[in-house]
Structures are given as C-alpha cells and as structure tokens.
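User: Hi! Is it possible to get a structure for several chains at once, not just one? Here's what I have:
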Amino acid sequence: MQTFDLAAQGLRALNATLHGLRGQTNQTAWDVVNPRGAHSIAVGLDAPVDVTVHGSTGYYCAGMNKQATVRIKGSAGPGVAENMMSGSVIIDGDASQYAGATGNGGLLVIKGNASSRCGISMKGIEIVVHGNIGHMSAFMAQSGTLVVLGNAGEALGDSLYEARLFVRGAVKSLGADCIEKEMRPEHLALLADLLARGEAGDLAKPEEFRRYGSARKLYTFNIDNAASY
Amino acid sequence: MCGIVGLFLKDATLEPHLGALLTDMLITMTDRGPDSAGIAIYGRPTPGRAKLTVQSARPDRDFPNLADDLSRAIAATVTAEIKDTHIVLDVPTDEIDAARGALRGLRPEARVMSAGTGIEIYKEVGLPRDVAARFDLAQMTGTHGIGHTRMATESAVTTLGAHPFSTGPDQCLVHNGSLSNHNTVRRTLRAAGMTFETENDTEVAAAFLSHKLHEGAALGDAMAATLTDLDGFFTFVVGTRNGFGVVRDPIACKPAVMAETDRYVAFGSEYRAMVGLPGIDAARVWEPEPATVYFWER
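Assistant: Yes, the chains can be modeled jointly so their relative placement is included. Here is the combined structure:
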C-alpha cells in the first residue's frame, strides 16, 4: 500500500506518479490523504491500480479513467468520472453536477445522490446511483445504462438516443422523446448483474424498477421531412 | 465564473473568529474570481447607533475631518474609523438618512457601500488576498458574513462593480452568474423609486430583493420571487441584519455547496472553500436544490 499526502506533495506530483504506473506494476494500491476538495485528483489513469481518496474531491475527479479503480471516501464535485473509458469509480457520498458525463465505458457507482445532468451524453458507461438524481439526467445519452434506486428529477432522458435508463422511484418528468418501455427478461437479468456490481444487490430487486428509453422519433432522419431540415 | 463564500454563526463563541474564517474561505476562491473581491460582515448592533460604510477613490482628500464635518451637518455625534479606501461612520440610528443626505453635499465623490445597524461592506479590485489584507478583514468579528471573488462578465472591473451589492438597510447580495433581463427589471424598479449606482446586473437583483422587502415581503418570499421575475443564471447569497439566504435558478449550473453543524451554516461555490472550518468533517454537507429557497434567521 502506497500513501500519498496531497496537501504536502501536491496535485501534479500525484497525477504524474499515477500516470507513471503503466502495464504491470507492484504498486497496485494507493491511499490519497488530505484531498481537501482539490480538483482533478487521479485524472487520466491508465493502469489496473486501486486508488482510494480519503475525503471529498473537487471538479473532475477520476476523469478520463482507464482500467483503474478509484474510490472516493467522501463526496465528489462536478464532473466526476467525466469521459471514463474503463475501470470503475465508486463514491461513498454524493456526486455533484454531470457525474459520468460523456463516459465511454467502465462503471460509476454513487452511493449517495447525484445532482443535475448525471450521465449527460453518456456513450457506453454504466452508472448505478443508490440515491436520487437531479434534473436533465441522461440528456442526449447515446449508449450505456443508468440505474437509479431513488427518484429522478425533471426531464429525464431528454433527446435520448440508445442509452437504457432504469429508475426504481418516481420520475418527476420525462424529457422530449423519452418514454417508458416494457421490462423484458433480458432487462431483469441486466439489472441483476448491474445491481450486484454496483454494490446494490442487497438494496433493491430488479422487478422494482421501471425502464425508460428513446421513442426514436427525434433523432431518426425521416425522408418525408427532408424539406424541413 | 465567480466565487461565493458565506458563514452564518449559531455558536457565539465563534464570533471573534468570523473575519478570519471568512478570509480563508475567500482566498481559497481566488481561482474563481481574481478580478476583485468584497465582503459584507454583520457585527452585533450597538443600541441607538448605525453605520455608514463609505468608499472613496481619493481617501486622502475625502476622509480627513469627515466625521467632524458630518457631525456639524446633522448636529449629532459621529465617529469614524478609516480602513484603506473605506471609512465606517458611526451615527445615531435616527440620523442615518440625514447623514447620508449630508454626505452627498460634503463629499460628492464618495460612495456609500452599505448602511445599517450591523452591516459593513468592503470591496476593491485586486486579488482576494490583497483586498482582505488592505481592510484587515481577518480581524473582524460578527455574527454572519458573505464574501465574493469576481470574474467579471457583465460590466467593468471597478470597485463599484465588485460584490456585495447593498441596496437597502442591512441588506446585501452576491451573485455567481449573469442576468439577461436586468435592463427591463432596472427600468421597472426605477419607476418604483429605486436608485442605481452602476450598470451591473447583480445590482438589479439586489435592488429587486430590497424593493420586495420594503413592500413588506418576508425574506423567503422575496427570494422566491427572483425565480419568476429574474431571467438568467444565478446562485444568489443574501444577507440581512439577522438572516442569511441562498437561492439558485432552476437550471442550477452555477455551483453551490452548503455545510451545517450545530455551530454554523456555511456556503461555498466549492467544497474546498469550507475545508478549514471547525468540525467540517462531521458537518452535514449538501448541494442546494435548484429553484429552492434556503434561509436561516436568528
């Protein structure tokens, strides 16, 4: 186990050290102490290492993550795990705006609540939120899966493409072109797997969720409307 | 982008440290607003006395003998404390309007930053650390205070364009964001008798609240009215003699974090502004909901 004191050693030194871990390394477990809400902690990692941040983080923690597992023992500021490619990010507390935005892959777990624009423009990432999500979540989401054990705010899935949304609680309103869809056996299986991986297997059952997706009326080019484009 | 910090104390034993705590918070928000900085701090009122905080671009010309001149003009005791480009004039509460009127004649280029029984506002252009040092903010005591670091978007980088804005007795407002209908609202408020010192959008929001309070609205109702009547992006933090409030527009893209313990309620544009507060690790920390009014009064 390696320990890095962010207050003493600084952000650039932390990220340079973590970026130096390529391929096979023996230094696979890192504790980051004294994060004090700093921005850009553990961004751009590209190695199968496990980084635990002991406290709350500022903007863009674990952005662009590949392969690594980043755990935040606190809450995360705006843009956590933005554009994640693979690996996983697990937040014990809440996440601020646009958590997991534009994520291409990997798993983001938020054990508290996420605020507005969670999963905006997601492109393949899997997101499991144990609490609630705010307004405009999954706006223009292209692919991937968003699972919410609590409630969703206004305009869920506005202008949605092919991402799959599962919400257990109430949805305040659906955005343009987002509709409720039937829950089929393959969706229950997908949910069971994702709940287990999202550390929520004991908190909710797949049958308790409702599924939302795109009506595919907004983004599909229609030749009959060519004159309007 | 701008930075906002605020602290409302519940535990009186923290009051001697209010200035120091707020100064640290303000300096942490330098990255969000290096153009100018300001702070409104509410001290415990002295019965029968009120304070005018006045700023001048030429303190060497405007401040000498000002207390004596004002004292003669209103026939009452006036004392003064000079802090860099600001002077705090201590006047009888009943004479505050007379003092304000006399000041316009005595020192036409001096500007009133705030007036009231508890409030003092200090603001200047420059880095927050330098502004705080010029006014020795860290030594100030009080019950609650609000600070702002500005990255200007809507009007010039000047002392008067810095926040907080005060447009009513013991009232102030700071803003992160920009308003798009401020010219329309300013015209309406002018017709209703409000006066304006700048072309700044935030001054309009402050005057909007002051006007509502003057009409008799409760603080919470006045703040709720910003959600229907003001168009644009905003996170507002407002102060009154005994209160402290927060409201964000429905889109809520301007960041906000709050923390509460049994000793204080704190506001920061970012969590890192609050990491130096006592007991922050055990505080309830949350993000204020969009289009929701939060306020605390003592």
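Chain B touches chain A at residues 250-253, 255, 257, 270-275, 281, 285-287, 289-290 (CB under 8 Å). The helical segments of chain B are 18-28, 59-62, 66-74, 96-106, 128-135, 182-191, 201-214, 219-229.

User: Great, thank you!
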